[in-house]
Write a structure and sequence with these properties.
The protein is an alpha/beta fold. Helix content is 46%, strand content 15%. Bound molecules: flavin-adenine dinucleotide (FAD).
């Protein structure tokens, strides 16, 4: 099923779209662990699962397409295959798009990918909107296109205003749904959404939520995303700094409170960054299932 149709059905019924993100296991020997995780995640009855795309490396080794196709076929859950373009040639992208299409994948998230110092850039695509145009050119009606957005601004932008103007290129190129970068302060998200709407961007936006359950995630993910940490979040971190189990449950509780507030504010969807940990995502779902 096409993802924009899921949003329009659920939102018309006054319900948010509930989706999950997983990533391909890094080691080949663990390749089946993703299906074990999805088997467990199935209980949450997600509207879709999105599968990330490793920006570097050879397209022949990329397992995003297989994983997205297998989840759809074997678990009967709709999927979105991510695709990045900054490290790809036009030919690589073309091959991948047709591989998606031939594998019965109907939804793609068009992304630029991060520019990593020292990593090769092919320079055939500069921004995600160019990838969206290429997807439209190759598979006009067969693939629906989603894109990323940044409630606190993308780190390369001078301002949120500039970032929102650039988002319009994506929408113009056929992106019909946006999924946000993770954030911890819902007020920032609400401000962002009202700026989008004021600027005439009407596509549904899902809020990206990452439950922080380990101190290592604070250093890595939080700092990389640049998400601002509101007072109650930093208080939680400080309180459980030396209490592993305490942080685990407090982080899940924080994510639940964030999701409940977002849904009660009429947010069109919540997208959980599962980090391939089904137990955490299931606990968050248990805390919001009455609202789904
Ligand atoms: P773009 O939309 O190209 O934006 C990048 C920057 O350029 C922004 O500052 C923007 O304002 C500006 N810009 C955009 N268009 C134009 C234009 N036409 N002209 C001038 N400036 C412009 N990375 C992966 O490697 N694999 C993944 O699977 C993956 N999944 C993600 C999923 C989500 C929901 C999110 C939020 C991010 C994901 N990322 C992933 C990370 C993403 O690749 C990086 O954040 C990357 O730096 C930007 O990607 P983008 O598609 O938003 O780029």
């Amino acid at each position: 099923m096409k993802i924009p149709e899921i949003y329009s059905q659920k939102n018309r019924a006054g319900k948010p779209v509930f989706s999950l993100e997983v990533f391909p296991p890094k080691r080949k020997k663990n390749k089946d662990s993703i299906y074990e995780a999805v088997e467990k995640l199935k209980i949450t009855n997600p509207d879709f699962i999105s599968v990330t795309y490793g920006a570097g490396g050879n397209i022949a080794d990329n397992s995003t397409c297989d994983i997205a196709a297998n989840i759809k076929k074997n678990f009967d859950i709709e999927t979105v295959a991510h695709l990045t373009c900054i490290n790809s040639t036009r030919e690589d992208v073309k091959v991948m798009i047709h591989r998606f299409k031939d594998s019965n994948i109907e939804n793609v998230m068009a992304l630029r990918g991060d520019i990593v110092p020292g990593e090769e850039i092919k320079r055939e695509f500069t921004h995600a909107n160019e990838l969206a145009i290429e997807i439209q050119r190759q598979c006009h009606d067969d693939l629906e296109i989603l894109g990323a957005c940044y409630p606190e601004g993308h780190y390369e932008s001078q301002s949120i205003e500039e970032d929102i103007q650039n988002l319009k290129y994506k929408i113009g190129a056929g992106v019909k749904v946006l999924i946000s970068q993770l954030f911890f302060d819902n007020v920032k998200f609400y401000g962002f959404i009202s700026r989008l709407r004021d600027d005439g961007i009407r596509v549904p936006v899902s809020a990206g939520i990452m439950p922080i359950v380990k101190s290592s995630q604070i250093e890595k993910t939080v700092q990389l995303s640049g998400a601002c940490m509101p007072h109650d979040f930093t208080e939680m971190i400080a309180l459980y700094e030396h209490d592993k189990e305490g942080l685990y449950y407090a982080g899940i509780d924080y994510a639940i409170r964030q999701c409940r507030d977002l849904i009660n504010h009429g947010t069109e969807g919540v997208h959980i960054y599962t980090m391939n940990d089904p137990q955490v995502a299931i606990k968050v779902w248990e805390g919001i299932r009455d609202l789904l």
